[in-house]
Protein: Acyl-CoA dehydrogenase
Amino acid sequence: MNFELSREHVLIRNMVRDFAENEIAPYAEQLDITSAFPEEIFKKLGSLGLLGIPFPEKYGGSGGDTISYAIAVEEIGKACAGTGLSYAATISLGSAPIYYFGTEEQRQRYLVPMAEGKTLGAFGLTEPNAGSDAGGTQTKAIEDGDEFVISGEKCWITNAEYSDTIIVTAVTGKDERGKNIISAIIVPTNSKGLTITSPYDKMGVRASNTCEIVLDAVRVPKENLLGDPQKGFKQFLYTLDGGRISIAALAVGIAQQALDKALHYAKERKQFGKSISSFQAIQFKLADMAMEVELARNMVYKAAWLKDNNKPFTKEAAFAKLFASETASRSANQAVQIHGGYGYMREYGVERLIRDAKLLEIGEGTSEIQRLVISRQLGC
Ligand SMILES: Cc1cc2nc3c(=O)[nH]c(=O)nc-3n(C[C@H](O)[C@H](O)[C@H](O)COP(=O)(O)OP(=O)(O)OC[C@H]3O[C@@H](n4cnc5c(N)ncnc54)[C@H](O)[C@@H]3O)c2cc1C
Structure:
């Protein structure tokens, strides 16, 4: 067993860290205030090849592994969690399903531009009445000649306004037991009948683009069906398993930022004639934060390693997502506590971490759903 990062992993970490510290972190507070999407940052991420890390070069990627990708998410998320969320979503939810399940033609046509950073990608699963229970999808795709006619509504879809295509889940029929068959279909965002708006005023991850999508008899060719229509549900569960590794990596970035800021502040701030870092109550908070960050990162790397080695990783991805997101919330909360009243003020940049971290306990399966996934893996 070897716990050391490879030379390539260290190189990617240093490169992304440098970029994130210089080109993302200085804008994070403003992006949070204005809730503006960082288009320019994404253009640069694209030109550095960072939007294609886990895909082969023949699909416009850089041929990296899931560990490299997780390292990049952590570093970007540490600088700005909203940017990190959009980064993780375009790769894990927009591009990856096309790489996993797409035909060669679909990969060339849709994956290559995303991996090269020419457009972002989005995945539309959630609906107003189908969140944790994705089996309750109401959006329908009805066959009409060579086309699907899709009608329905999706909510809180990350990146849709900046994507050329959205992968939309829809009911395409019934199986022999009378249960809905849910398939994934690639829908170009310039399709007639498709409306994308971003009406949400979010608590955190405010730099990410979050959209409402209305599909009103949207026609797409049948060849836009992604993967096996009978296995649409299984396919998106696999997609979400992969996505959870990246959400966990994003949580590690937030937790590490909380620790770094709290440690720095604790050494500077003096009360009762001493640095507050000399008080055991503060030291123990920092010790717990450091231990949990380390553990969460190891869980991310293990899940990523299992995926890269084609081993089952559903349980470990859920472990990582659950533990890392709750770690991020705890660490952010303690960072504010260590900053005292200053931590409650926006300019210190720690209250934002609490707001950003909370999303990671909800998106890509809530903490309750992660516990369900884990208990099912245990055979319950
Ligand atoms: C900023 C943001 C970005 C997002 N991006 C995307 C995206 O790109 N694509 C996409 O498809 N979706 C996206 N989502 C949606 C997200 O995945 C859902 O919000 C999430 O899956 C939970 O669904 P829900 O909000 O409907 O909650 P609900 O399912 O209504 O859950 C409400 C509460 O009930 C609990 N609960 C539900 N079922 C059970 C159960 N069986 N046992 C125990 N507890 C249960 C939940 O854990 C939660 O606490 C995004 C959401 C946000 C906020």
